[in-house]
Specification:
Rossmann fold; 6-stranded parallel β-sheet; 3-stranded antiparallel β-sheet; 16 helices; 42% helix
């Protein structure tokens, strides 16, 4: 009876208590998991709230930055438009003339100061008419300025024309005074004596205006001289879209003609004849009876020798005179030499001496040449030689002859003795002699390659050790030299 009282549905109290305890523990576990979940959610919410606040700050900062950037962009656009308007408002055409080779017509020169003023006015008039026809190609919307520079050796040119009986003393000086005084941007510059003076001035002005965005066109009056061809090729290669036109006077040089640059001829201003054509009949011909110069209707001059007997059988011979340069005749190719380098004439060779090789105390026949190295070279001159284009032919300048025909390198540079030494200095420090590497000696007295490592320290040279440069061409093993 007691057992029945303590049981419910046939389950004892002990079993019920165990069941209730188990269920309670399960509920407690669930509650703990619920609390953990709530705690985790609260922590996650706190992290997200922090991130949200950070993102909101970042967003606000980016908004401010975007507003500032947009303002800066608007300001820059305004500045750019203003700059473009200024560039478009002040375009100019630059005219560069080599006055030692491209001469003004004789009738203008003989008018002296008045002729110079007339020549300046005609030059600007013809250029303006020519440019207006192609203003769209040159990005010129409105008006434009024309600036002209003529470079020449005034004294030398005047003496030549006076000696040729083409002008009187002082006429040319008066002409260029009138030419310069006519307009503010038209000038003559007397470069004085010096073979390259006009060339170097023109090159300098050419490069300056080539970089000026306001300069829409360069008109070059020097196409008669082949010496300008390498320079013009460099300009057209580095600035292929920049317009460069030629002003024709004497016949255009062959290399410049091959460049196919636009060319224009102003016959009423410039002569078609070269300096040699001008002076050959006047000052360099054999003695003849006094000649009389008479003008003709087409602007040429007939020179009628006194006493009859012309080449045409009529007692006269016709010469057409131009006002070409008073400079010397064209020379071999030269490049602008640094001002600190003095010019000399003929190349020289490094001296070499024969040595003997001793074995067991006996003298053996000479087996090689001891080549002395050029100890030093001026950095400016090294840069000058390295930048020659085309490169100077090593065989021609260092050995005295070249067996390659045709040779891809130049034989036309006038290298001074110091230039030749510098050329050897460069080569013997960059290219080792292969015969010396293979045989241990070199029997070529004129060999210009390196026969010793120029980079060794005194200790390395004394101990016959290789230099510290692992890639040295002079100290590397034969297997490394195969790819040289």
């Amino acid at each position: 009876m007691a057992t029945a009282v303590n049981a419910v549905h046939g389950v004892s109290n002990a079993a019920l208590l165990a069941t209730y305890k188990t269920r309670f523990e399960e509920l407690a576990t669930t509650e703990r998991k619920k609390d953990d979940l709530i705690q985790e959610l609260l922590q996650q919410n706190e992290r997200l709230a922090t991130l949200l606040e950070r993102f909101e700050d970042d967003l606000e900062r980016e908004k401010n930055y975007a507003r500032m950037s947009q303002k800066e962009i608007r300001d820059l656009k305004i500045q750019n438009n203003t700059a473009e308007d200024k560039l478009m408002s002040y375009p100019y055409i630059q005219v560069l003339i080599d006055g030692d080779g491209m001469m003004f017509n004789l009738d203008l020169l003989r008018k002296k100061k008045e002729g110079g003023s007339e020549a300046a006015a005609l030059l600007l008039q013809d250029i303006r008419e020519t440019v207006r026809a192609r203003r769209e190609d040159l990005c010129i919307k409105g008006d434009f300025d024309i600036r002209a520079l003529v470079f020449a050796n005034l004294e030398g040119l005047s003496k030549t024309l006076v000696k040729a009986n083409l002008l009187n003393p002082g006429d040319l000086q008066q002409f260029f005074i009138g030419f310069t005084q006519r307009l503010e941007h038209v000038n003559f510059i007397d470069v004085g004596y010096g073979k390259e003076m006009a060339d170097s001035k023109i090159r300098g002005e050419f490069l300056f205006h080539l970089k000026d965005p306001r300069c829409r066109l360069i008109l070059f009056g020097g196409s008669h001289d082949n010496g300008y061809a390498p320079f013009l090729k460099t300009c057209t290669a580095t600035s292929p879209d920049y317009p460069i036109w030629l002003l024709e006077g004497p016949p255009t040089a062959r290399e410049i003609t091959a460049m196919n640059l636009p060319s224009y001829r102003f016959d009423r201003i410039f002569s078609k004849e070269s300096q040699n054509e001008m002076t050959s009949g006047a000052g360099n011909s054999p003695p003849t009876p006094p000649a009389v110069l008479t003008p003709t209707s087409n602007g040429t001059l007939n020179m009628q020798a006194g006493g009859g007997g012309g080449s045409n059988g009529s007692g006269s011979s016709d010469y057409r005179f131009s006002y070409a340069s008073a400079a010397v005749a064209p020379s071999p190719i030269t490049l602008a030499r640094p001002a600190s380098i003095k010019y000399n004439t003929s190349p020289t060779m490094e001296s070499a001496k024969t040595i003997t090789i001793s074995g067991n105390g006996t003298t053996i026949a000479p087996r090689g040449v001891q080549h002395s190295m050029v100890p030093s070279a001026d950095a400016e001159r090294v840069n000058y030689i390295k930048n020659l284009n085309p490169r100077a032919c090593n065989n021609f300048y260092l050995k005295g002859s070249c067996y390659q025909q045709p040779c891809q390198y130049s034989h036309k540079y006038k290298l001074s003795p110091e230039d030749v030494r510098t050329l050897k200095y460069i080569i013997e420090r960059s290219k080792p002699c292969q015969q010396y590497r293979k045989k241990g000696f070199c029997d070529d007295e004129k060999c210009y390659y390196g026969h010793q490592c120029p980079f060794k320290s005194k200790y390395e040279a004394a101990t016959d050790r290789p230099c510290s440069n692992v890639h040295c061409r002079f100290c590397a093993g034969d297997e490394q030299m195969m790819g040289y």
